Predict the structure of Transglycosylase SLT domain-containing protein.
Amino acid sequence: MSVSLIRRIATPKKALTTAAVAAATAGIALTSVPAQAATPTSATDAKTIAHQMIPDAAQFNAFSHIVERESGWNIHATNASSGAYGLVQALPASKMSSAGTDWKTNPETQIKWGLDYMNSRYGSPAAAWKFWQANGWY
């Protein structure tokens, strides 16, 4: 039995036990492999998610301009002096919890919160961008 076959076996305990016994019998050492994070975290991933959530090109571009200046599309961006956090630099950061409990690590949750904020405060991302251009903040 090859190691690659063992790694492809699903998580049911019986299947794992059978594979482990077979591997031990064949003299193969099993090692655990850490699970990969399911939440995308790269800037490209975040932009793709935002583009899916904001299909209107003008609104996406406005949102993107703000996020680029606020965080550089880094979901973990933290302002050392104010504590603002995430793609849209929420302050306090914990406000994003209203969009989901995974607000610290999930770009989709941060984008949802940012869109809700821009729409409720300014009417749209484009209006928020216009304000940002005039004031250097939003």
